[in-house]
Design a protein that fits this description.
- The structure is a single chain.
- By secondary structure, the chain is mainly β.
- The chain is built from two helices and 17 strands.
- It has helices at about 1-20, 275-300, and strands spanning about 30-35, 40-45, 50-70, 75-80, 85-95, 100-125, 130-135, 140-145, 155, 160-170, 185-190, 200, 210-220, 230-235, 240, 250-255, 260-265.
- Strands 1, 2, 3, 4, 5, 6, 7, 8, 9 and 10 form a ten-stranded mixed sheet that branches.
- A hairpin with an 8-residue loop joins strand 11 (about 185-190) and strand 12.
- The longest helix is centred in the C-terminal third of the chain and has 23 residues, at about 275-300.
- About 20% of the residues are buried.
Length: about 300
């Protein structure tokens, strides 16, 4: 009888610990990637937005993400405003053939907390159906903010949104009257990039509507009026035309609301006064005037 009682107690304790162990919060230390839609039901009238967020219990600083999008719609705009990613290694890129939206970037100093915005995807649905958003496991990696860059464990969530014909989506209005934050472009050189030639790297952050594009102007003369410049649309890294580094380099960041911020990199090797054609033109013109006046006075 005593032996049977011990077996029953052992069985009960085993069951208790098994249940308790099963109920432990596995993944509590894992980073959670999830979608936050503007609405849970989508209509075919107007645009709607879905944010891609992260909850991180440990500090993370590097992101490589692949988002699968299936359904009767494709993303038409990616909004990077308010993103915790400061430097984009790979800008968000949509591949229609694979149905994947991929991007990667870095957050210097790392991020730890909830509701960290990576980006927001905008859609313009035109037909009813359903859209399924998920994360591609092979393409999605998050790394801890450590010296050896250890990969973090992940909880990847997906979401299905019904698209109802005729329903009007709540318009997303972004009021943005401010330019991007101040940024500092830097000249760099690497034997593996542009055959070792000098190039410019730059990145601006805009917390309003997001950066639309950049433009660059190189000139040997300091600009007084920025509107007179011949701007060239460019991306970072940018191969410099003036490899002698004697030019002023102006970089303009334009956000999606049209606001502009201009940063300038001064010449690393400023021209000597005798190298300037403008100075020589003034000298020659002055000499010509002096000669003409001297000749007139000599005749008198």
């Amino acid at each position: 009888m005593r032996h049977i009682l011990q077996i029953k107690i052992t069985a009960i304790l085993t069951f208790f610990f098994s249940v308790s162990f099963a109920l432990l919060p596995f993944g509590a230390e894992a980073a959670r990637l999830y979608f936050e839609p503007q609405e849970l039901t989508v209509g075919t009238s107007g645009e709607f937005s879905v944010a891609v967020n992260i909850d991180a219990d440990k500090r993370v600083n590097a992101f490589s993400v692949g988002i699968s999008i299936s359904g009767p719609l494709i993303p038409y705009d990616i909004n990077e405003a308010n993103s915790i990613i400061n430097f984009w290694v790979e800008k968000p890129n949509w591949d229609k053939a694979t149905g994947l939206l991929t991007f990667s970037g870095i957050t210097p100093g790392g991020f730890k907390g909830n509701n960290g915005r990576l980006l927001a995807i905008k859609f313009k649905p035109e037909e009813k159906g359903a859209v399924i958003l998920g994360f591609n496991k092979e393409k999605t990696k998050i790394y801890l903010h450590t010296a050896d860059g250890v990969e973090d464990s992940l909880i990847l969530e997906k979401i299905q949104l019904p698209i109802i014909k005729g329903k009007e989506n709540i318009p997303v209005v972004i009021s943005d009257n401010e330019p991007s934050e101040w940024f500092a472009p830097e000249i760099s050189q690497d034997p593996n990039i542009f055959d070792g030639k000098y190039f410019l790297v730059f990145a601006a952050q805009d917390k309003g509507s997001g950066i639309a594009y950049y433009a660059i102007h190189e000139t040997r003369r300091e600009m007084k009026r920025k509107t007179d410049a011949k701007w060239i649309e460019a991306e970072s890294p940018y191969l410099l035309k003036d490899q002698k580094l004697k030019s002023f380099i102006y970089v303009k960041a334009i956000d999606k609301s049209g606001n502009e911020r201009i940063a300038v990199v001064e010449p690393k090797y400023p021209m000597k006064w005798y190298e300037s054609m403008r100075i020589w033109s003034i000298i020659i013109a002055s000499a010509g005037v002096a000669y003409f006046i001297g000749k007139k006075l000599w005749k008198r």
